[in-house]
Amino acid sequence: MRLGCGCVSAGVVAPAPKKPPGSPDSSDSDDDLFVHSTAAPDSDDEALDSYLRDRGGHLHDDPSEAETEEDTTPGDMARRRESRSSRVRAAGDTDAGEETTPLDLYGFPLRALDQAAIKARARCADTASRRSKRWQAYREGKPLPDDLSHESSREHRPEGALKTLMRKGVPADLRPKVWMATSGAAAKKGRAPRAYYKRLRSLPVEKAVRDQVDIDLGRTFPENARYNTEQGRETLRRVLLAYARHNPGTGYCQGMNYVGAFIWLVLQDEESVFWVMVCLLDDICQPGVHAPDIAGTISEYRVLHGLLAAREPRLQRHFEKTETDLVMIASKWLLCFFTESLPPECAARVLDGVFSEGFKVWHRVCLAMLKLNESALLRCDSLPDTMQTLQDAFRGMHDADALMRFAFKRVKRFPRAEIETHRARVMDVIAGEKEERERMDRERRRVREEREAAAKREEEEESRRAREAEEADGGSTESDLSE
To answer: Which residues form the domain of 389?
Structure first.
């Protein structure tokens, strides 16, 4: 499926506000807890080392230390039972005679998992079970900050213990509450006019938008039975049309359907899905990513190539040699925010980080996956080979702990100012390319106009000669008659 080619705009409601200059991603702080921490390594180090051993990788860090267990509580025992159930799902085990395919946490079937994937899923389930108790205060009523936002400054973002907890993964039962808070959706909903979402649903939307949304509803996660119900599809339809009305400048773009459906599978509340989508697409995402011409997506992948050149120059040189432009083969990493590329539980972990720390996490995860698969990518000598290698790598990344640890620890530190520098360079290049295209267009128009003018002169000359010939013939005829 080609993503980004079905963008359509709606003409209702004022456009969503643009990201101000002081947006979170323009901040110069990096807040790299894992890079600068002097604490002993935790179980994420163990997960990463285990993941690299399974892949035949090399270890570069000190040996990890397992997390210590606190006194077991009834809640811990219940979560461990859930962890065991998760391992059963991960391994694909079923009861005797049962023909049904095991499902993951969000209803996606688990098929053809190799032993490394089974091991990784089991390890992540155990780690999640241990860490879940650290969130118990929030289950018991501890409030999340009510002013979190990605719109203006980093003052209103998760910090300290909450930020660290989110990097290590939000428990599934708390994701609806935590995502609403950390994405800024709860604050944005609170500032919106009364019954804003309900009013959006009552407004008309262009037929082109409705038609494209209806086409894409059936294409979205066809393997997920939880979504593929009348309720699931109709809920997604209402959310996507409401967003098109909310932000008519963007309207609807392919890729939004995967984002909306995945968020619904996590949150299970229609209006909450709308507000989280609004924050993700309007506040966290870079401008123009889902625009009709996906110009923001194209420019952000150029930024990614710039970051790759600074950190993994060998791989970037190889991409240049093989004429590999990641936006041509992997645009859905951004258009779908990994929800159609990574295994669902891993995509949810990435979104935990994105909602907590902003768009820069997307760059970290991309660079992590490229670095983790560098050896395989360097062996690819064609664009199709590279595309298949990346697809297989993303689909097989079941170790969310290892991925996020690698993204925050092994990817070289880069401040937001560096990203902004790359963006400025990209915008200069794009402006230069636009100017060159306009110059070439003017030159083509000039040549075309000159040819048309020359053809017109030639046509007029031929007409003149024809008239003179006719007049000459007419004079000869009159002379003959007079004689």
So the answer is: 39-414
